[in-house]
């Protein structure tokens, strides 16, 4: 099946009991068993739920993976991956990454003597140089959050596997519609399904997809043991959102291209980050690695911190809020919101300064989005 067909049908056969086309919401905490060790595949809803199973199978199909696991949030999915590590292990990560990921690396994993080295996102040589004898995992975002840098997944995968290291790729910004890291050599793909996969800003969720059975079994064990699972209604809402993922992503990208071209010419824009522009340093890599450039645009405008508040208050169509990937357009100030947990000196050294704004471009009419930006920046 092609992508759009998978999104609608993978893991979502008509209900065998009733013939219902839509996957039922199995709103139950436990399941009847005929006798000792005799049940219909489900025992307790933390361990497994038919609605969640449908979601996990669909997510795996979309990423061209064998196994999918759904979690209560993206960070719950991250925690499962990090629990593959043991005290004294080491990780290598790209330096431009989500503030919540940095926080769990530095304020939680470090308490268990698990250290992280950060390297320039797109500098492939740095990844190999940062590897130590106790390095067990390489962590990538591509495109990165919020500066939209790209990392050559295939090249880093070759390095990781040469050293017997797992490669994890956060694919949230691209969605599986535009990028499939497993096909490029990644071992685990991570999503905050809160974002594009659900697409309607009404669910918190996360997911992991992989091909290796042993890795799957270890992560599945953690999912059940720690219990950070989504409820059946959240799973159902995410499945509902997935059905329109392809058409939404096409419109997100079309609008993002229009916004990026507009901002590229605007006199108040000092720096612009969008991999779909030929001026982006990773544009050629994006063309090779992705089937589209996504719906995220970041820019730094000429002004001071005080001007940020003026700009975001003037916006009428864009909503000033955290998160991304919904049908509505959002604007975020990373320095005080999504990346506020990163110390100021580290954040600014990486390029996340006080006048950087991150746009999640929705699927509204492009004319309204451009007019809104024009009047807010005027």
Automatic annotation (TrEMBL):
Any matching Pfam family: Cys_Met_Meta_PP
Modification N6-(pyridoxal phosphate)lysine, positions: 195
PANTHER family per record: CYSTATHIONINE GAMMA-LYASE (PTHR11808:SF15), TRANS-SULFURATION ENZYME FAMILY MEMBER (PTHR11808)
Species per Swiss-Prot/TrEMBL record: Reticulibacter mediterranei
GO biological process terms, semicolon-separated: cysteine biosynthetic process via cystathionine; transsulfuration
NCBIfam families cross-referenced by the UniProt entry: PRK07811.1
Cofactors (names): pyridoxal 5'-phosphate
Domain of life of the native organism: Bacteria
This protein's name: Cystathionine gamma-synthase
SUPFAM superfamilies linked: PLP-dependent transferases
A GO CC term assigned to this protein in UniProt: cytoplasm
Family to which the UniProt record says this protein belongs: Belongs to the trans-sulfuration enzymes family.
MF-aspect GO terms: cystathionine gamma-lyase activity; cystathionine gamma-synthase activity; pyridoxal phosphate binding
Keywords: Pyridoxal phosphate
């Amino acid at each position: 099946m092609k992508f759009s067909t998978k999104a609608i049908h993978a893991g979502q056969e008509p209900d065998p009991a009733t013939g219902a086309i839509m996957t039922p919401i199995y709103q139950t905490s436990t399941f009847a068993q005929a006798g000792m060790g005799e049940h219909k595949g489900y025992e307790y809803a933390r361990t497994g739920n038919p609605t969640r199973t449908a979601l996990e199978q669909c997510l795996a199909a979309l990423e061209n993976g064998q196994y999918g696991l759904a979690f209560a949030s993206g960070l719950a999915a991250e925690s499962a991956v990090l629990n593959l590590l043991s005290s004294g292990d080491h990780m290598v990560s790209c330096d431009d990454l989500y503030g919540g990921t940095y926080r769990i690396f530095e304020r939680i994993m470090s308490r268990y003597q698990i250290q992280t080295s950060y390297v320039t996102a797109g500098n492939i040589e740095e990844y190999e140089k940062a590897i130590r004898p106790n390095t067990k995992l390489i962590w990538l975002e591509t495109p990165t959050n919020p500066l939209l840098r790209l990392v050559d997944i295939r090249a880093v995968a070759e390095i990781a596997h040469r050293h017997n290291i797992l490669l994890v790729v956060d694919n949230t910004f691209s969605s599986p519609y535009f990028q499939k890291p497993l096909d490029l050599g990644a071992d685990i793909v991570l999503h905050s399904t809160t974002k594009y996969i659900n697409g309607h800003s009404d669910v918190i969720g996360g997911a992991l997809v992989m091909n290796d059975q042993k890795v799957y079994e270890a992560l599945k064990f953690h999912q059940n043991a720690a219990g950070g699972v989504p409820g059946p209604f959240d799973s159902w809402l995410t499945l509902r959102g997935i059905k329109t993922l392809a058409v939404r992503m096409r419109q997100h990208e079309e609008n993002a291209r229009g916004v990026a071209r507009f901002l590229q010419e605007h006199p108040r824009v000092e720096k612009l980050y969008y991999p779909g522009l030929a001026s982006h340093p990773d544009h050629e890599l994006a063309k090779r690695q992705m089937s589209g450039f996504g719906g995220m645009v970041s820019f730094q405008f000429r002004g001071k911190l005080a001007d940020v508040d003026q700009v975001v208050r003037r916006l009428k169509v864009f909503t000033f809020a955290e998160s991304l990937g919904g049908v509505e357009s959002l604007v975020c100030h990373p320095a005080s919101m999504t990346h506020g947990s990163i110390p100021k000196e580290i954040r600014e050294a990486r390029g996340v300064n006080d006048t950087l704004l991150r746009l999640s471009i929705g699927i509204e009419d492009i004319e309204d989005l451009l007019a809104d930006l024009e009047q807010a920046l005027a």
